[in-house]
Amino acid sequence: MNTQLLQHIKWNNDGLIAAIAQDCNSGRVLMMAWMNAESLQLSIDSGDAVYWSRSRGKLWRKGESSGNVQKIRSMALDCDGDTLLIQVEQLGGIACHTGRQSCFYRTLSEGDWKITEKVLKDPATMYQHVEKA
Amino acid sequence: MNTQLLQHIKWNNDGLIAAIAQDCNSGRVLMMAWMNAESLQLSIDSGDAVYWSRSRGKLWRKGESSGNVQKIRSMALDCDGDTLLIQVEQLGGIACHTGRQSCFYRTLSEGDWKITEKVLKDPATMYQHVEKA
């Protein structure tokens, strides 16, 4: 463990930090997920984004089933130390488990959320095994 | 309250949703903060970003002291319904309470966080009153 690096992080009560993944080429914000100390260290060491899945309660190597791995190009910490911004190269061009480029595919319009982004790949064919954020 | 809009949101145990503010012109991710139902509704109704300050336990009208208001251009909800991505026009060009454009001004380099963004305005002159995320 790199204690120098980790000591600046303000973990929440569950020992997690929010991590925003941004496409380093398009600037598109792809998703927001969570990391614990282990997943952050694994991300740094491997260069591939590894999150902590709160729903599954285990490490989540992004793209382990779909192949949509996120190659980390740089990482920044915010002023409060409780959010990471990760610039990634999104392999496959798909970050969302619905088969869309970004998880932020519902846009506020006339008082409700409208789907404004198309599915690039059918999730049924995208996963060898079930993967869900 | 717009219940149709709010029912798609998955509030956390504290009744909050994460909100990422992205500069609609540069694509720069500026900050991540939190909203409760009231602050989200106020944001939508007013067109200016209103957050919930967890540290102060009250509504936080971004820029109320500094003048660095965020004019909302669009808003998107992620697949899980627990994170908002808000495209904003950042008045004053400064989102961070440290006087920097973005809160993500510390970049990982050689095993530690290095400050890679300059202060555009001294916080001492930026606030009429104390404002802190």
UniProtKB/TrEMBL annotation, chains A, B:
Cofactor comment text: Binds 1 Mg(2+) ion per subunit.
Gene Ontology MF annotations: magnesium ion binding; phosphoribosyl-AMP cyclohydrolase activity; phosphoribosyl-ATP diphosphatase activity; zinc ion binding
Protein's pathway: Amino-acid biosynthesis; L-histidine biosynthesis; L-histidine from 5-phospho-alpha-D-ribose 1-diphosphate: step 2/9; Amino-acid biosynthesis; L-histidine biosynthesis; L-histidine from 5-phospho-alpha-D-ribose 1-diphosphate: step 3/9
Record domain Phosphoribosyl-AMP cyclohydrolase: where: 31-105
Annotated positions binding Mg(2+): D78, D80, D82
Any Pfam family: PRA-CH
Keyword Metal-binding part of the UniProt annotation: yes
GO cellular component, one term: cytoplasm
Localisation per UniProt entry: Cytoplasm
Cofactor: Mg(2+); Zn(2+)
Top-level taxon of origin: Bacteria
Alphabetical list of InterPro entries matching this protein: PRA-CH, PRib_AMP_CycHydrolase_dom, PRib_AMP_CycHydrolase_sf
Residues given in the record as Zn(2+) binding sites: C79, C96, C103
Chemical reaction(s) catalysed: 1-(5-phospho-beta-D-ribosyl)-5'-AMP + H2O = 1-(5-phospho-beta-D-ribosyl)-5-[(5-phospho-beta-D-ribosylamino)methylideneamino]imidazole-4-carboxamide; 1-(5-phospho-beta-D-ribosyl)-ATP + H2O = 1-(5-phospho-beta-D-ribosyl)-5'-AMP + diphosphate + H(+)
UniProt record, GO biological process: L-histidine biosynthetic process
EC identifiers of the protein: 3.5.4.19
Biological function: Catalyzes the hydrolysis of the adenine ring of phosphoribosyl-AMP.
Family: In the N-terminal section; belongs to the PRA-CH family. Belongs to the PRA-CH family.
HAMAP family: HisI
Assembly mode: Homodimer.
Name by which UniProt lists this protein: Phosphoribosyl-AMP cyclohydrolase
Name of encoding gene: hisI
